[in-house]
């Protein structure tokens, strides 16, 4: 066997998401596989190659840390720094609002990464000196690294919505990062009277998880149908149309949730009145709610801005798609939702997982003095229209050397024909598998 990981083995490992990506329908599904887990595990170098820091333990960062250690072995020291003590999955978190899941069901510890040899620390990065590749932490002493991987996720532009100050945010939640706000939004829905109104404000794309808001509408509608059947949902979408799985979501809204949901396109919320829970659109429409759920516009996480990694529209980070290396900072790799997405590439947990494997493979090659090779990425996004019936969209993305970006592969991927419970089985298996792929 080759002393180091081969390009073929690396491509096979990265092309899988750590789980089977369902590309067909329930009636005739096919599986995108390619994870070389047994007979092609790479041999590792016996000499020290370097020290790598991964900042952020989400879908991208945790995956990168795990696979850097898996593929680098003792030759690469891998340090993961994460401010939270456990991982909480955003995918499936809408089910907490629907009532079929608890937040504990979506929570996974970082102990598996520790057992795998990743030095996993509960801390926060204050600043990164790009020129020196040194990092200042909140608790730890400043340290240097050979390579740094930054997976900062997204932050929200609350200032884009007048009145959504710190005090207003206590009542008007986004719940777009799974955790305490998810639990609190569920509590607000439970406290709402039957016959009340839930208002959801969706920001202009790009935002994290394109189908996520429309799945949220389904989950809230499912809860209302069972517990508060006279209640209504108003969707204020800043976009001109539903951004993902339009026909499939409309089938649910006009079918099992008929009469419960009012969808308003081109309705960007620019102001809120916290006292009356009123959303005000740019056209001056005032929409009053019993529960007001405002998802503000997105941008790369604050650390990306502080480190000088944001170089696209003052919002996102541009990368070399072969290595995930920042085009603004050599030696710094950026993953996940903070990246300016390639054409038709969603900001999703599955895609961040692919970014993490791409960066890990590239860093192993670079530390060995070899040139990384382009890698094909795949994505699957599942959406629950109720507690058990699910729809999906899947895609495959390949590097285009001329355009220096990832492009969707024509004819690859797929879309459900209708919501069905078999895909609910697939979706739950996807979650378990990808969490295992990242964190154990």
Which helices and strands appear, and what pairs or packs with what?
Layout: H1 7-15, E1 21-22, E2 31-32, E3 50-55, H2 59-72, E4 76-82, E5 86-88, H3 94-98, E6 107-109, H4 111-115, E7 119-122, E8 125-129, E9 134-137, E10 143-144, E11 147-150, E12 154-156, H5 180-191, E13 197-202, H6 212-227, E14 232-237, H7 246-254, E15 261-264, E16 269-273, E17 278-281, E18 286-288, E19 291-294, E20 298-300, H8 302-306, E21 319-320, E22 325-326, E23 332-334, H9 349-367, E24 377-384, E25 390-400, E26 405-408, E27 414-415, H10 421-439
In short:
This protein is 26% helix and 25% strand.
Radius of gyration: 22 Å
Give the N-terminus to C-terminus distance in angstroms. 25 Å
Low-pLDDT regions:
1-43
**Number of folding domains?**
2
> Could you give the count of β-strands?
27
Portion of residues in helices?
Answer: 25-40%
How does the helix and strand content classify structurally?
alpha/beta
CATH superfamily of the largest domain: FAD/NAD(P)-binding domain
Number of helices: 10
Please give the CATH architecture of the largest domain: 3-Layer(bba) Sandwich
DSSP strand (E) fraction? Answer: 25-35%
Main pleated-sheet profile: 5 strands, parallel
CATH topology-level name of the largest domain: FAD/NAD(P)-binding domain
Q: Output the strand order for the largest sheet.
A: 7-4-3-11-23
Rough outline: globular
Oligomer: single chain
Mean pLDDT: 91
């Amino acid at each position: 066997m080759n002393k180091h990981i081969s390009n073929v083995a690396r491509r096979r490992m990265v092309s899988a998401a750590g789980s089977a990506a369902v590309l067909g329908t329930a009636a005739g599904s096919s599986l995108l596989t390619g994870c070389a887990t047994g007979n092609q595990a790479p041999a590792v170098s016996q000499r020290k190659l370097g020290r790598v820091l991964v900042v952020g333990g989400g879908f991208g960062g945790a995956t990168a840390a795990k696979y850097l250690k898996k593929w680098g072995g003792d030759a690469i020291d891998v340090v993961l720094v994460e401010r939270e003590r456990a991982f909480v999955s955003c995918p499936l978190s809408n089910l907490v609002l629907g009532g079929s899941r608890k937040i504990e069901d979506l929570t996974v510890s970082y102990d598996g990464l520790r057992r795998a040899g990743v030095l996993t620390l509960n801390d926060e990065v204050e600043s990164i000196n790009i020129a020196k590749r040194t990092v200042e932490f909140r608790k730890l002493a400043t340290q240097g690294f050979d390579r740094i991987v930054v997976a900062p996720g997204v932050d929200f532009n609350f200032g884009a919505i007048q009145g959504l100050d710190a005090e207003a945010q206590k009542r008007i939640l986004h719940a777009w990062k799974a955790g305490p706000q998810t639990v609190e939004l569920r509590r607000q829905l439970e406290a709402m009277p039957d016959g009340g109104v839930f208002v959801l404000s969706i920001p202009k794309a790009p935002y994290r998880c394109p189908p996520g808001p429309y799945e949220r509408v389904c989950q809230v509608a499912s809860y209302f149908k069972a517990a508060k059947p006279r209640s209504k949902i108003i969707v204020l979408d800043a976009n001109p149309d539903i951004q993902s799985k339009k026909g499939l979501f409309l089938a649910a809204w006009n079918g099992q949730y008929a009469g419960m949901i009012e969808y308003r396109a081109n309705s960007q919320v620019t102001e809120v009145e916290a006292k009356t829970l009123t959303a005000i659109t740019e056209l001056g429409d005032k929409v009053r709610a019993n529960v007001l759920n405002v998802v503000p516009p997105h941008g790369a996480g604050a650390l990306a801005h502080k480190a000088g990694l944001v170089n696209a529209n003052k919002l996102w980070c541009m990368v070399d798609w072969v290595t995930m290396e920042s085009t603004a900072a050599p030696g710094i790799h950026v993953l996940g939702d903070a990246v300016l997405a390639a054409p038709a590439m969603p900001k999703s947990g599955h895609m961040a997982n692919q970014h993490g494997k791409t960066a890990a493979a590239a860093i192993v090659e670079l530390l060995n003095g070899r040139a990384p090779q382009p890698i094909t990425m795949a994505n699957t996004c599942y959406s629950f229209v109720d507690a058990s019936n699910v729809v999906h969209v899947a895609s495959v993305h390949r590097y285009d050397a001329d355009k220096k970006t990832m492009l969707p592969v024509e004819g690859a991927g797929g879309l459900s024909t209708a919501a069905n419970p078999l895909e609910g089985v697939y979706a739950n298996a996807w979650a378990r598998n990808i969490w295992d792929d990242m964190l154990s």
